[in-house]
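Incident review: delayed structure delivery

Summary: a single-chain prediction request sat in the queue longer than the usual turnaround. Root cause was a stuck worker, restarted by the on-call engineer. No data loss occurred. The affected request and its eventual output are reproduced below so the record is complete for anyone auditing the incident later.

Affected input:
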Amino acid sequence: MTRTAVLVGCAELPKGDGDEAAVIPALESLGFSVSWAPWDAQFDFAAADAVILRATWDYPSRRAEFLDWCESVPALVNSADVVRWNTDKAYLVELLDAGLPVVPTTVVPPGSAARFPSTEFVVKPSVGAGSRGAARFAAGADAAAHVAALHAEGHPALIQPYQSSVDTDGELALVYFGGIYSHAFAKGAMLRSTMDGSGLYLAEQLAKAEPPADTMALAEDVLDAASALLGILRAELLYARVDVVRGADGRPLPLELELTEPSLGFRQADPSAAMRFASAVRQQLA
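Output delivered after worker restart:
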C-alpha cells in the first residue's frame, strides 16, 4: 500500500536546503510517495498520511498564522501542540524549572525592563529561527536598544550568559528519531556564521561527531523532561534535536531543544540515518 508523505518547506525554500536528499529514496523504499510543498501553498495537506515539517523557516514573523495552519493539518509531525510549545523559546524556562541544567535564561516580555548579566551575554527573540535577531554583547554592555527593537517587533526577548566554550568547541547537536538516538553533529559558533542567500538560516560549519557519555545522558534527560511537560511519550516525537554546550565548569548544558523544523544533519550522519528516519515515520503511523 502506497502512503503519501509531504515534506514541508516555505516559499523561499520550497524543497528545503538539500539536507533531506537521502530521506526521499529511504521513504520511497518503505512504500511512501514523497513530495515537497511550502506550508502556505494551495496544497491538500489533509489528504497526506504524514506531513513532516522540515524547512518552515519563515514562521517567526508569521507565527500565529503558522500555528493556525499547523492546527489544520491532521497528520502533522511533530504535532501542532508540540510546535506551539517549542516555537517560543520560553520553554527553556520550563526546562529550568523542571530541574535541568539549562543555560540560564531570562524572558523579558514587551513592556518590561531588562536586567543584563555582569558577564558577556546574548540577547535574542523568544520566537526565532536560525539565530536571526540574536546579538552578543560584552560584559557590562547596555543592550536596551536591542531589547526594545525585539519588543517593537512583538517578541519577548531572551537573555542568556554567553557560553565561551562555543568559541572553541562550538555546539553539539544530538538527533533522535521516534525518541531513539540516531546520530550527532558538531556546529561552529552560530554568531560568527554568515546568513544563507535565502536570508532564513545561517550557513554553519558542521561536522560528524560522537557525543561523550555525559552529553548523551543529559540529552536523554532533556527529552524525558520535555515529553513529561507535553504529556506525551518520547516515541510520539518523530524527530528531536538537543543542542548542547559546555559551561564554564566543563559540564554539558542544553542550549536549545529543537522539535519543530530543525536541520537534522543527514549530510553529517552515517548512510543509515535516512532509513532510521523513514522507519520512524512508519512508526508514527502505526
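Verification: The chain has three domains: 3-78, 91-100+165-285, 106-161.
Action items: add queue-age alerting; document worker restart procedure.
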